[in-house]
Amino acid sequence: MSRDKNIPFARPCIGPEEEAAVLRVLRSGWLTTGREALAFEAEFTRFLEGPRGGLPPLHSLTVNSATSGLHLALEACGIGAGDLVLVPSYTFVSTAEVVRYLQGEVVFVDTAPGTFHIDPKALEATLARLRRGEAAYPKPHGSGSFGPRGTPKAVIPVHYGGLPCAMDAIITIARQYGLKVIEDAAHAFPSQLSNGTWAGTIGDLGVFSFYATKTLTTAEGGMVVSRDQEIARRIRLMRSHGIDRSVWNRYTDTRASWYYEVVAAGYKYNMPDLLAALGRVQLARAGELLDRRKKIAARYDAAFQDEGSLSLPPTGPGDARHLYPLRLNLEILSISRDGFIEKIQAADVGVSVHFIPLHSMPYYRERYGLTEGDLPESMRSFQRAISLPLWPMMQDSEVERVIEVVKTIAQEHRSA
Ligand SMILES: Cc1ncc(COP(=O)(O)O)c(C=O)c1O
Which CATH architecture has domain 287-351+388-412? Predict the structure, then answer.
């Protein structure tokens, strides 16, 4: 195998326009939240807002990460101590930790077989159990239940890897049980459902991440979107210390009022203009970046589809292709997933695993008395997943090298 240079797992796509935008803000005399953030919000809304068909207008609100966006979303939905929030175990820790910030209790839901997404059937079964007054998880062999019990208030489906969840089923179940739906769209800009609506705009709120490895980056950052004016108002207030009005211009506008009032114990979750300027350029390039990711993913699909020991990631036409989670058919391989990863890394190709199921993490395991086997599909997905590099500036030769490395290892370790 040729080894000209390392191929990192991820690399942001930053060009001269991003550099110029950041420089413009650096030279402007105003670095933190202000006009750029407001413009980014307006442009983001314009991007996602299709024909509304009678729906209320969409509000977009910049924040300093998707984690803080999820926290604000739950807070705005009134989640508090003892409230239950249902989340997939198969996600990054942010999706669950924000529930604990508010002293809510996390209820993990298993993955639908053969996917990386929350299983609507498992969601409904959990809600039905809670409604009957039982605890969240059935004990093995039908001998009662364990874990949190109480009133479920919200569900956070995760559009894992950029592929939208089964939102119709999730919304139907959520409405039936009176749950708020907060879409974790951290991976899903821009992802579309089959009817053309954008992931993140379907539930009560959607939260996008602009972390350095994401499909649109501001280094760190996020956007919360909602059509609910009250929710948007609360988030605007709480992302900025609970201060009752926008005061960013009090230092730049010599006539701006210095006076403000604090009406709630809020947070400091605002996005600086320096980062919003970067986001605006990346947003304008969203189509170009998506096309390139789709081309790379399609090349991987074509190269791996006949390799019996590998299964392609589930995908669909509206997939933003943020991740490429290849799956190993371990039954016909003489190498473990971890061994496979070591061999890829030894060939100087960066890989990752998305995700280690949260119910297997010490904190959640101990808090809720969970064992790995309690959410078997999530563990099954985890045990065979390897995320391959997928970033727009990858050269064709780099894509081919990743393919060669992966196929060679798979062929050398076919046990059947
Ligand atoms: C599914 C998911 N949700 C939320 C987040 C949190 O995003 P951020 O890093 O912007 O807080 C991540 C980050 O990787 C994620 O993968």
Answer: Alpha-Beta Complex (3.90)
